[in-house]
Amino acid sequence: MSSTTITTTTTTHAPTTLPLLEGPLPLPDFFDRTLRMYTLDAGARDVSVAVMYGGQVIHTYADSAVKSSRVVNPQTTFRIASVSKVVTAETAMTLVDQGLLQLDEPIVGLVADNIGLTLADERARDITVRQLLSHTSGISNFLKIFFEAGSYDQMSMLTEVLGQALETEPGSTYKYSNVNFILLGKAIELVTGLSYQDAVNQLVLSPLGLQSFRLVGTYEFGPSDALHAVSGGRTYMEQLGAAGAWVATASDVAKLLDSIDWRSPSRHVVSNENMKLMLEPATPQGVTPLWNYGLGLRLFTSGDWGHSGSIENVHAMVLHRPDGLVVSVLVNGVKPKETDDLILAIDEAVLASHTGVAATTTVAP
């Protein structure tokens, strides 16, 4: 465990004209030093990182600042927030392979009828699995209900949000909403006859050997968990469920993403055809000039793909890079300010590992 030292404001790195060392991660100490700069040195409490290449975990790094409530190691489980959506998406796609779910058949009406919910907007009845997976259902994000309006259980939350009109016509617009993946969790329960957690374990986690994944409540911390700070009177983890309530190690998160790469020698639970489909843009137009959304995955114009996660005192990022590296970074704390800053951190860290020159920072006057 080591202390927090500086706040980062400006980052520089070695010129890319320097000769690059060969190998997937030739100087891991420089890689670790750069990621520490973006996380612990910037004010985070804990960080855990895993790097995969060729279907194998080739490097891990875990460290804590002095202010950490529990020193972490590579086996520590962190809240992964919306990276949980990859778990749910992969489970749904295994059921598409089995014919129990159909990407383009209406599902929300069946789910609502099964759990006794009334749909205020009849258009919601025809929302498909594909539209839920791609955030094109037309359902609003309802951030206040999840994160600002006190305590809801999942059913009371769904009763309220489905009791309102859709924000847009289904299939017409990308609108990120946790509700989409909560409904996918209910659809998984409907077609399997299992609890969401049991279905995920049987269809994805156990076959892939990912033993660290657990669903947790807002105030639930096991002996292997990083101790994320949580404010009082909250129930966001209970509401999120399939959309954001998993914890896992950085290594298992990297393995999860790698299992969606049909070119990897890792074990797969989804067919090649549907793994490729998950990586195709599924929105009517690009979400931003920098990234689009597939089926449960963010697709970056850089060639990276994966998912991010943000929740109270949590930043999570897992990326499959064009160079074949899969990098998972899990952070406990409020820094970096924006979770997508971890994309730059990963890029800088990989570059530093190849040049032997770590990124540096200057301190604002």
From TrEMBL:
Domain Beta-lactamase-related residues, every copy: 41-348
Pfam (any one): Beta-lactamase
Coiled coil: none
InterPro entries to which the protein is assigned, alphabetical: AmpC-like (IPR050491), Beta-lactam-related (IPR001466), Beta-lactam/transpept-like (IPR012338)
Protein name: Unannotated protein
Protein source organism: freshwater metagenome
Lineage: unclassified sequences, metagenomes, ecological metagenomes
